[in-house]
Amino acid sequence: MKVRYSIYLLSIFLAVNLAGANVLINEMLPNPTTDWNGNGDVSGMDDEFIELYNSDNESVDISGYVLKDAVYRSTPGEYKLPEGTVIGPKGFLLIFVSTSGVFQGNDGDAIKLYDPSGKLVDEKKYDATKEDVSFARIPDGGEWGNSTAPTPGKPNQQSAP
After folding, report:
1. Is 113 exposed, middle or buried (CB count within 10 Å of its CB: 0-12, 13-18, 19+)?
2. CB atoms within 10 A of CB 89
3. Which domain holds residue 85?
4. CB 152: neighbour CB atoms within 10 A?
């Protein structure tokens, strides 16, 4: 009987944890030297981006989710996603620092994603960065790696050797 109860509790635990696992931080560019936001101006801070990815086969409403910068460079150092923010199935949401105010440090930092209840959903900690090299999950939603070919708002690709 104890084994069944333990399996039952484990199943509930896994189901609850997997419920928030469909939205991930998928790519981050902390040290840009290219006009990634397409405004015609190269600005290290404004061209930083964070990309979220929905690994689910259904749309996900992420209204109220919060991005936080562990090493605050401005106040408040966090961004609450507005009402009506939805990521389609296997889709991306691209957020530039000029919108979020969540800055990424070139010499190391951590970006964290929380659900509306305050539960940590995902985070990426990192050390010093190189110019125009992103941290990217390859394939999308997979393991973290580095990419010399950032793909904001698009599927991540392996860097050329």
Report:
1. buried
2. 12
3. 22-147
4. 20
